[in-house]
Amino acid sequence: MQFGIDVLLSDDAVRARLASGRVALVANPASVTVDRQHSVDALMRRGCQIVKAFGPQHGMRGDKQDNMIESADYFDPVRGIPVISLYGKHRWPTQEMLADTDIVLFDLQDVGCRIYTYISTLKYFLEACADSGKELWVLDRPNPAGRPVDGLLLEAGHESFVGCDTLPTRHGLTVGELANWMKDKNNLDVDLKVIRIEDYSPALSPGFGWPVMERPWINPSPNASSLNMTRCFAGTVLLEGTELSEGRGTTTPLELIGAPDFPAKDVMSVLETRMPAWLEGGWVRPCYFEPTFHKHVGQLCQGFQFHTDMASYDHERFKPFRLVAGLLKSLRTVDPGYSLWRHHDYEYEPDRTPIDVINGGERLRLWVDDATADFNDLESRLQSELSWWLQEREPYLLYE
Predict the structure, then answer these.
(1) Beta partners for 305?
(2) 364 three-class SS
């Protein structure tokens, strides 16, 4: 499999174009070629005129652990080019930042979830390049979560840095496919070029689009530490808006749910009885863990770990949003007074409840808290909204 960066580097005419223009690169530590060079090094060694780079959330070096930890601008000590942070003073590329460029190369590895902020950064570049007349080239990479979809659509008026457009939580597109959809959906007059992946088969097991045993997994952010995490993330990210641990401070972040007082056995009993289909596809394993930082630091937590890395994994039936939503609803059923929702500044939205920011609206929280709401109420809404999304995304699928 050849990712977009590899296809670009193999094309002499394209490289010549990049040698004659002023190029900016949007990248992070996972921006690596098939021969394990970082994209900035590979491009400059092939004569491309890279004049600056942009770093997204977690930094160009990928060193920032948590949300709301900003990165500063700096000069790359090896290449001597400025590296501009888009998770600090600015989250949008300004016209001043783009003034001395002709082409922007976007080469970020995404994880296939609306809440992961790299696709917000993509949308901001589409808008900025449309306004400035700059070319935007998206160097496509696989969606490690694959084609399946899950989760509620973002509601109009609830846009944020973790919800940039009307997408379900797990959308099933690559960044290149998303770029084409965003351009059309938002009527952006932008000179967009998508460098497609070669030999990409998102329906093929065991990687379902990710080249298992061909390429190493490189964390696109510090807690995106495995292929399993990307499959679980559309559910476990919801826990960032709760008092339950999502596993930060352990060796398996965003693959866990739990707390010192989490009634795991009773919660599982409710979900098994009320909506067993939401447990299908993967393995939900009872476990204990003790975070070394973040929520419940130094306390023994009981909960569950989610596994998708075994032969019995069913890629189409595993629905992480439903699974975690079901566990939250079951917890509320077992203990109606449980202190569940967090109230803190979350991704630059100080006046909104974090779970509503993450979910892209109030509906999940209201459903969990409503004692009269049934599991089938959420299932019916999900089926309706995801059916619409599957039709909406169909024209933008590049790899069938």
Answers:
(1) 256, 285
(2) helix
